[in-house]
Design brief:
alpha+beta, 44% strand, four-stranded mixed β-sheet, single chain, elongated, 36% helix, 107 residues
Length: 107
């Protein structure tokens, strides 16, 4: 499956739009990570625990979006985007979305 943030795939035309596909996950903070991050925030620097947590969340949301596209029989997902939102004081959602399409080779 071709996955891209662009609207077009070189060498192909969109033959059929199957619809918008989504993948999301909601992650919450970990008390142990909060304590360590709080201490780091006093001296500055990257909060590696949160960087790792968000990278895992992004991968999970992306994989769920791809699986949703596969379920529709898509050849590609175009215009892929990511967004986040706070769902409660200690949790955030990471959402991946794009347009599932069937491609045809350009002549």
């Amino acid at each position: 499956m071709i996955l891209t943030t662009t609207a077009e795939v070189p060498g192909y035309a969109v033959g059929e739009v199957l619809g918008v596909v989504f993948g999301n996950t909601v992650r919450t903070k970990n008390l142990g990570k909060d304590v360590m991050s709080g201490l780091k925030s006093l001296v500055g620097g990257e909060l590696e625990e949160y960087t790792s947590m968000l990278a895992d969340a992004r991968t999970e949301a992306y994989n769920r979006m791809v699986n949703a596209a596969r379920d529709l029989g898509a050849d590609a997902v175009v215009n892929i985007r990511f967004t986040t939102s706070q769902t409660m004081a200690s949790a955030a959602e990471l959402l991946a979305y794009g347009t599932a399409v069937k491609l045809v080779p350009k002549k």
